[in-house]
Hints:
Layout: E1 9-15, H1 25-41, E2 46-50, H2 57-68, H3 74-78, E3 112-121, E4 124-128, E5 135-138, E6 147-154, E7 160-164, E8 176-179, H4 184-188, E9 195-199, H5 206-219, E10 222-226, H6 234-239, H7 245-248, E11 251-253, H8 266-280
Parallel strand pairs: 1-2, 1-10, 2-8, 5-7, 9-10, 9-11
Antiparallel strand pairs: 3-4, 3-6, 4-5, 6-7
Helix pairs in contact: 1-2, 1-8
Amino acid sequence: MTSNRRDYKLSIAIPSSLVSEVPHQREKTVVIGQIARIAAIHRVEDIYVYRDVPDESRLLRLILNYIETPQYLRKNLFGMMEELRYVGVLPPLRTPHHPLERNSSRLETGEFREGVVLSEDNGEYLVDVGVETPARVTGPGPSIGGRTTVRITSVQPMLTGRFAKKRDVKSYWGYGIHLTGGGLGKFASRGDFDLKLAASRLAPPFRDLEPELGARIAEAKSALIAFSSPRARLQEILSRDGLEMSEVFDFTANVIPDPGSVTVRTEEVLGAALALIGMLR
């Protein structure tokens, strides 16, 4: 699988109230799983969860982290949790960092694997990388029980590797989850992104902005797309911080103009917005 990372950093911002109106834990899990799949399909690097009411940021972060974690690491990293009761209904991400190979003899020197540290002795670590034998990894690494990225350095006569950074991997290597600790206005007003786009049904159609937006995104090294909550539009959310849309975002676009349904859910807007952005670059 050769799904390379984007040549710019694409992030999304979603509200902590995203699943607040979904009545049952099973359905909440399904919606969060859809967000994870859409983000992975479109190679989103970071998902930011901004504070909203009601606040279900803990559940969002937990399930998004769980789904992003390779299957062979989940037992060690999560164990049994009531909030994860229904994750078995979710489809796998099937991203490059979720490999199916479980035989160490079939690994290749130079390939990357996600792992969890099992033990450490005088700077030598045993790391579970999802095969029948742990890899021996040297160098400064995380504490026991920590997740890490490993680059395989040899397969025979012993499986060995070295610790690596996510940025060392050319393939798309999953998304990170971040709680902003505050509202959307405060977070999006920071100068962390070259381009900021708000998805709003009250905005001009995306096609009207395409020429200018395409030129801007072609030069951007980082981009953020923000989405509203089930109960409040983006302008209402920003007004809590005394801000206007034009003060925070470079562009505001309606990515599903003239929908055939009275309601359009956040996860549906998310998929449409990311697909349109992907066509520009």
